[in-house]
Automatic annotation (TrEMBL):
Protein name, as recorded: 6-phosphofructokinase
Residue ranges constituting the Phosphofructokinase domain according to the UniProt record: 9-281
Keywords: Allosteric enzyme, ATP-binding, Cytoplasm, Glycolysis, Kinase, Magnesium, Metal-binding, Nucleotide-binding, Transferase
Catalytic reaction list: beta-D-fructose 6-phosphate + ATP = beta-D-fructose 1,6-bisphosphate + ADP + H(+)
Taxonomic placement: Bacteria, Pseudomonadati, Bacteroidota, Flavobacteriia, Flavobacteriales
UniProt EC number: 2.7.1.11
């Protein structure tokens, strides 16, 4: 049922890019077209909205991008949008382009931006969770998380080969600004000897115990989340303090985790969430994020889409067992 007067949707990607964003754009435009709704892409997130950089989108072009990482609309972190003056300019641009609904693909910062924007702009917004960090409530998975974990695992597997050949300790830092989801998924997936995440303090004590008895007769892999308060450098010097004989190297995987082809899960998630965003607008819904909870589509108001710092209890329990 179409309860809205939606004729022209503006869609953009914002914050860090994540694999699956192009699939979400494809899902959005395909379903909009099915309902006779025009879609414009807003380039470079809030920056392009402020500057009025809009381009027409067609599903035929986007169909060719589903397998590609990154975002064809480009993305940005926008200082200007943090100020009300920037948001006023963005509102003018939307009006000048006759946009009557907006679909935003980004992380929790992007949704905080929309909440602030909704104070001066009455256009309905629907969000799609797109960040490799998986740190948003209201969805089991964010777009790009699964691909990023697969990339991390692929790379750590390779590090394991060289670590085992030299009997070295490797500290591998993975992404996750404030959250340990990538670390725990990739660390468990590679059979790491220790996993350090921002949500736990015990993990470091367990590591120190283990490394004290380490006899340099095998490889030893420590996966550290970049959000962990200690950081790879400090962890390395503590290990050296406890066991001076270890031959130790640090590898920071960095932005390689954000790139590459989206996994099948992220392609499917993008298409489902893009489609769901348009349907939510057609039902007259606004200022909420579409997500998938227990494999069912869900809609959560932006106010409740707070940053989910905490890795859930089940995973924390696994961390304790497998960190021993
Ligand atoms: N409180 C806020 N008020 C207005 N705009 C905001 C606010 N918080 C964030 N934004 C806008 O949203 C943009 C994206 O946020 P941010 O850089 O935190 O990335 P994100 O969406 O959380 O994605 P990622 O998880 O990939 O980093 C910011 O650059 C800024 O323009
Ligand atoms: O690409 P930038 O702006 O350096 O941001 C890096 C941050 O973005 C993320 O990749 C999330 O998109 C975090 O894991 C990381 O801390």
């Amino acid at each position: 049922m179409d309860n809205s007067k939606t004729k022209h949707i503006g869609v953009f990607t914002s914050g860090g890019d994540s694999p699956g964003m192009n699939a979400a754009l494809y899902g959005t435009v395909k379903v909009a077209e099915q309902h006779g709704i025009r879609v414009s892409g807003i380039l470079k997130g809030y920056e392009g909205m402020i500057d009025g950089h809009f381009i027409p989108l067609e599903s035929q072009q986007l169909q060719k991008t589903v397998h590609r990482g990154g975002t064809v609309l480009k993305t940005a972190r926008s200082e200007r949008f943090m100020a009300v003056e920037g948001r006023q300019l963005a509102f003018k641009s939307l009006q000048n382009n006759d946009i009557d609904a907006v679909v935003a693909i980004g992380g929790d910062g992007t949704f905080k931006g929309l909440l602030a924007f909704s104070e001066i702009c009455e256009i309905p917004f629907i969000g799609i969770p797109g960040t490799i960090d998986n740190d948003i409530s209201g969805t089991d998975y964010t777009l790009g998380f699964d691909s990023a974990v697969n990339t991390a695992i692929e790379n750590i597997d390779k590090i394991k080969d060289t670590a085992e050949s030299h009997n070295r300790v490797f500290i591998v830092e993975v992404m996750g600004r404030d959250s340990g989801y990538i670390a725990i998924h990739s660390g468990l997936g590679v059979g790491a000897d220790a996993i350090l995440i921002p949500e736990s303090g015990e993990d470091f004590l367990q590591l120190l115990k283990k490394v004290k008895d380490y006899k340099s007769e095998d490889g030893f892999i420590v996966v550290v989340s970049e959000g962990d308060e200690l950081g790879a450098g400090l962890v390395a010097s503590k290990i050296k303090e406890i066991n001076s004989k270890v031959d130790l190297r640090i590898t920071k995987l960095g932005h390689v985790q954000r790139g590459g082809s989206p996994s099948s899960l992220d392609r499917m998630l993008g298409i489902r969430l893009g489609s769901a965003a348009v349907r939510a607008l057609l039902l007259g819904r606004r200022n909420a994020m579409v997500g998938v909870l227990d494999n069912q589509l869900s809609l959560t108001p932006f106010e409740q889409v707070v940053k989910q710092h905490q890795v859930n209890d089940e995973l924390q329990e696994l961390l304790k067992i497998f960190g021993k």
